[in-house]
Specification:
With 125 residues, the protein is mostly helical. It is built from 5 helices and 2 strands. The chain has a two-stranded parallel sheet with strand order 1-2. Helix 1 packs across helix 3 (69-83).
Length: 125
C-alpha cells in the first residue's frame, strides 16, 4: 500500500491520520511506562480509536509499505506499535465520536444525539 496519492486531499487525509496515530502511540507508550513504573501490570494493548479508515487499514496490513518519505517515520512507528501489541487500532463511528462535532459539519439532530447525554449528566451532578 502506498501512502501517497495523486489527489492532494486524499494524501493530506492519510497524512493527518498517520500523524494523529503516531501522537496516540507516543501518548500510549508514555502512560504505559508510567503505569509500569508504579507497579501496575499491563495485560493488553491500548485501544486507539480513529475514523480515518485509510490510517487504520494501513497500520494493520503486514506487507504494507510507505513510499512517501515525509511520513515514513510516523508510519513505521505506528506499524511497529501495532505489530508489538502496544496499541490496537479500532474504528469509531460519527455517532459515538465526540470530536466530530468540532471537526465536521454535522446535522443538528446528529449533534443533539451526540452531546445530549453529556449535557444531561453534567447538569445532574
Amino acid at each position: 500500500m502506498e501512502c501517497s496519492s495523486p489527489r492532494g486531499d486524499i494524501e493530506f487525509n492519510l497524512w493527518s491520520g498517520i500523524m494523529a496515530g503516531r501522537s496516540a502511540v507516543e501518548e500510549a507508550m508514555s502512560i504505559r511506562y508510567i503505569l509500569r513504573s508504579l507497579g501496575v501490570p499491563i495485560e493488553s494493548g491500548t485501544y486507539i480509536y480513529g475514523d480515518n479508515m485509510s490510517m487504520l487499514q494501513s497500520s494493520s496490513i503486514p506487507n504494507g509499505t510507505c513510499k512517501a518519505k515525509h511520513i515514513a517515520l510516523s508510519y513505521n512507528i505506528l506499524r511497529e506499535a501495532v505489530a508489538a501489541g502496544i496499541v490496537i487500532p479500532r474504528k469509531i463511528d460519527t455517532e459515538k465520536n465526540y470530536s466530530d462535532g468540532f471537526t465536521k459539519a454535522l446535522t443538528g439532530n446528529t449533534q443533539h444525539n451526540l452531546y445530549l447525554p453529556l449535557w444531561v449528566n453534567s447538569v445532574d451532578h
